[in-house]
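Hello,

Our lab assistant flagged a job as stuck in the queue for most of the afternoon. It eventually completed. Since we weren't sure the result was trustworthy after the delay, we are filing this so someone can double-check. Below is the sequence as submitted and the structure that was eventually returned. Let us know if re-running is recommended.
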Amino acid sequence: MTGAGRARRLVAEALGTGVLVATVVGSGIMASKLTTDVGLMLLGNTIPTGAILVVLILMLGPVSGAHFNPAVSLVMATRGRLSWGDFPPYVLAQVAGGILGTVTAHLMFDQPVLQVSGTARSGAGQWIAEGVATGGLVLTIIGVLRFRADAIAMAVGLYITAAYWFTASTSFANPAVTIARSLTGSFAGIAPADVPAFVAVQAAAAIGSAALADWLFADEAPAAGPEAAAQDDQGAFQSWGR
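-- returned structure --
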């Protein structure tokens, strides 16, 4: 990988994570301006997040693999689909991009740039929810890449949209996003003190889910035909699917 190529991948990861977080935080701020109904606020936060994930994966997948998530990058590194040398820069780019996304959302809505969330998200229920959310995301990525790689963008967007509603934590499922969301006082925030436990659960669930996927899909043949061949050569999601 050339220096320019690596730089493009890191910028794509930072940009994608930043836009994702700006969407999460910005839609949360907008929802709280438009309604006081908590259910409607959550819905107003959910739909933009799932939608932007589809767009970002389709747009940036060919550049970096569109991880936008240290837990996903960790899984890909353990599976040999991302070099360990690229793993720390990917994580740094994702975290930096996420923080910039929070700052951008605050600027768009004329809010103080530097904030600290006071929203407590702690306890066994929250941690189990994050394990389910992150594990399910990784299982979705590995399974869909194996059998329907062309559908990965839609699958990830739909999974996160659903997980917002069936997990008690509203499905952070992403250490970089978790860190970035601790820096907003908006509806989408998480108290900084609760971040370490979320990140630890996310990382453990990602590794555990990857192991489950290897066992679950071991006897199933990958999708055949031109689409599979295209992905093996130079498909849109090389970093995820090789």
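-- support follow-up --
The delay was a queue issue, not a problem with the job. The result is valid. The first helix runs from residue 3 to 34. The chain has a mean pLDDT of 91.
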